[in-house]
Design brief:
The chain has about 180 residues and is of the alpha+beta class. Helices cover about 60% and strands about 15% of the residues. The chain is elongated, with a radius of gyration of 40 Å.
């Protein structure tokens, strides 16, 4: 027999048999825990509950932080789009004035109409809507009344004339419409 085989045989002899090990464990375990063990167990349980509560609070705080950060990122994007669109509104106003004026050159008029149509298409793609047409109901959250007229033929708080169109992106007003209101 080689030295290796002899060493393995010794190890096998020294290892306790599974049945004997189970009997030793059973005989070593006390049937009923003593009072100091119960107190220590209760203390450890309370400490574990405290640590678990702190963990849950930290997890909830992190989740709230993550959601708040996402809302802020979304808000920053919407604000950036609104600010960019706001810079193009004078161009919209100038094109609108050019379309309202009569011109003898049909090619010029056609070019302005095409430019205005393209600008409206781009604003619509960005989620920006134009509001403030004559005949609409006046809404102080969206309209800025710069003039008032008494006219019995028109209803209460009806927009009579629009001096400057308003623009909104969803619920956010980018620019209030400047209007003349009846009654």
């Amino acid at each position: 027999m080689s030295k290796k085989e002899a060493a393995q045989a010794e190890k096998k002899e020294k290892q306790p048999k599974p049945e004997a090990a189970a009997e030793e464990v059973k005989s070593e375990a006390p049937a009923e825990p003593s009072e100091p063990d119960k107190a220590e167990s209760e203390k450890l349980r309370e400490e574990l509950n405290k640590e678990h509560d702190q963990y849950l609070r930290l997890a909830a705080e992190y989740d709230n932080f993550r959601k708040r950060s996402q809302r802020e990122k979304d808000g920053i994007y919407q604000d950036a789009v609104a600010d960019t669109a706001k810079k193009f509104l004078p161009v919209y106003d100038n094109l609108d004035r050019a379309l309202r004026n009569d011109t003898a050159d049909e090619a010029y008029k056609k070019g302005v109409e095409m430019t205005m149509a393209e600008l409206k298409k781009i604003l619509a793609a960005m989620g920006i809507e134009v509001f403030g047409a004559a005949g609409e109901s006046f809404d102080p959250q969206r309209h800025n009344a710069v003039m008032h007229v008494e006219d019995e033929s028109l209803g209460e708080n009806v927009i009579v004339e629009v001096f400057q169109n308003g623009f909104a992106m969803g619920e956010k007003v980018i620019r209030f419409a400047m209007v003349k209101v009846a009654n």
